[in-house]
Amino acid sequence: MPQPRDLVNGVLNFRLGYNLQRPYPGRWTTPIVCGVFVGLTILLAFVNIPLAAYDVVQEFTYTPNDTTNALPFSSLVPSSLRHSAGDFMPQTFKIGDTIQTNLSAFDYQILTAYQNELPSKAVASFPYYNNALSTCDVANLTLSVRKEERASISASIGCWLPIMYTMTMELNHAALKDRTAGFLGAVRALDSLLVDLEYGWSDETVVLSSDVWHGPDTPQNATGMDLSVYPCCVCGGTPSSESNRGSAHSYGEDVIGHLSCDNETAQFSGTYIQVYYANGTYGQLNMVDILPSSSDLQVPANVRLVLENTFQAIYHLIRLDLGIIRENQMYTSAAAYNQSISAVPLFSRFAQINGTAVPATVLSGGIMPRPFDSYANITRQDRATESYLSYGWDEALDVRVPSVIYLRPVFRQKPTASAAASVFVSTFAMVSALWKLFTLIAGGMMSSPATNDSPAVCVHCQNGKKSRFYCLIDPTK
Questions:
Q1: C-alpha pair distances (Å), 306 with each of 197, 310, 439
Q2: Which of 268, 282, 292, 383 could, after both became Cys, cross-link 337 (CB 3.0–4.6 A)?
Q3: Which residues does 168 contact at the CB level (< 8 Å), separation at least 6?
């Protein structure tokens, strides 16, 4: 049994090959070792292909989260030794930047941003890591209508990833003609419901009473209106109440979490109304309902219906554009659509009195009008069939992100000659290191003191009777 000191001395004094005075005791292992190292060299050559034959380069991309194809033979490399190309560089968004999602229906402008829930921690810019916009939600909606004019829409959207920030969206109905309706088929439904609103508002009369504080001296017909609402679960509270969101609100129009009642038909509570008449304006805050008829403001039932339909259409379209798909999303469910959109009795403009043409939509490829019927009724009837669902949503667009360019590191193969040289050098270095390790271990295992059965010195060489070559053949004779 060799002593530890003998093993150490053997490792330190071992040389590749044995001298003639000390014969090699394990000559039968030579072909085995050669075969092992030849196979190991071939294996290491394949292992070094993904390790040495590729460089990491930066490329521009709009989809930085896409997975790249695995490198050839990368499965041979242990997971602990594999190296990735690295993470992409985030985009920097600044206050005032306008962003658009992939195949977006709207443009969104960044309004505010801050480090946490306190507005006192406002920042001028922040990094964006291609976060899905489904981490945003609608905080407030505003609708502006005027007699014989196209309606205007604006919305405030609160987001909570990667930091707290808010966006605004503004759109005039007439601008829909500049949009491609194919982006989202639901845009055509909004287009038609806005027609209901515009012609319903023009045909009906909303009367502002003279009894209101700071109102007109005599009853006045309203010529226009700005109405602001927020989505709610327990309407009549505040937009920031915890009963309205899945988690607590912060301040103002900034939201954290989606509505906790997303399995029910969306509801809205009024926050502000501005009524325009011939000689002035009248404003009111903190309305519980959406434009209820009262002693102050006499609102026909038809007008309230088209207003509610329009808010439903805007709210669900913005959420659809952000990728927020819930049970009450009316553009992906026939039942939810018919629950969200109310049937509207005919306005005089739709009755084709004296041959007057039925009002047409803004989009050339929009929903076709039907004589003696409103667009709300047309779409409700069409939505009764499941085949109509494909009209509103494309499943390939369920993840919505801003369409901005990123720098992403990716692997690119080196030129063929350079790749071959790199693989050869890496393989040679590994094989050399393994061979050195093998010789040290083998030397320690083979070193042992001489015994009577294993002479330490070749007697033929010692007496000079035989050639040195003869000892290599059989040193015991």
A1: 5, 6, 89
A2: 383
A3: 108, 109, 111, 154, 155, 156, 157
Six-digit token string for 456 = 């330490």
**d(Cα 456, Cα 25) in Å, to the nearest integer?**
11
Q: Taking a C-beta distance cutoff of 8 angstroms, is the pair 357, 167 a contact?
A: no
Structure tokens, 232: 């709610």
Residue 180 and residue 307 in contact, taking contact as beta carbons nearer than 8 Å: no
CA distances from 15 to 103, 442, 444 (A): 71, 10, 11
Q: What is d(CA 194, CA 144) in angstroms, rounded to the nearest whole number?
A: 11
Beta bridge partners of 277: 280
Q: How far apart are CA 304 and CA 268, in angstroms?
A: 13
Token readout for 250 is: 């912060």
pLDDT of residue 246: 43
- Quote the distance between the C-alpha of residue 15 and its chain's center: 61
pTM of this structure: 0.76
Tell me, what's the pLDDT at 54? 92
List residues bridging with 227 in a β-sheet.
143, 273
CA distance 444 to 229: 85
Characterise 69 by phi-psi region: left (phi > 0), alpha (psi -120 to 50), beta (else). Answer: beta
Can you give the pLDDT at residue 315?
95
SS3 letters across the chain: CCCHHHHHHHHHHCCCCCCCCCCCCCHHHHHHHHHHHHHHHHHHHHHHHHHHCEEEEEEEECCCCCCCCCCCCHHHCCCCCCCCCCCCECEEEECCCEEEECCCCCEEEEEEEECCCCHHHECCEEEECCCCHHHEEEEEEEEEEECCCCCEEEEEEEECCCCEEEEEEEEEHHHHHHCCHHHCCHHHHHHHHHHHHHHHHHHCCCEECCCCCCCCCCCEECCEEEEEEEEECCCCCCCCCCCCECCCCCCCCCCCCCECCCCCCCEEEEEEEEEEECCEEEEEECCCCCCCCCCCEECCHHHHHHHHHHHHHHHHHHHHHHCCCCCCCCCCCHHHHHHHCCCCCCCHHHHCHHHCCCCCCCCCCCCCCCCCCCHHHHHHHHCCCHHHHHHCCCHHHCCCCECCCEEEEEEEECCHHHHHHHHHHHHHHHHHHHHHHHHHHHHHHHCCCCCCCCCCCCHHHHHCCCCHHHHHHCCCC
pLDDT of residue 27: 64
As to burial, measured by CB atoms within 10 angstroms (0-12 exposed, 13-18 middle, 19+ buried), residue 264 is middle
> Within the chain, which residues score under 50 in pLDDT?
14-17, 20, 242-243, 245-253, 386-392, 396, 449-452, 454-456, 460, 464-477
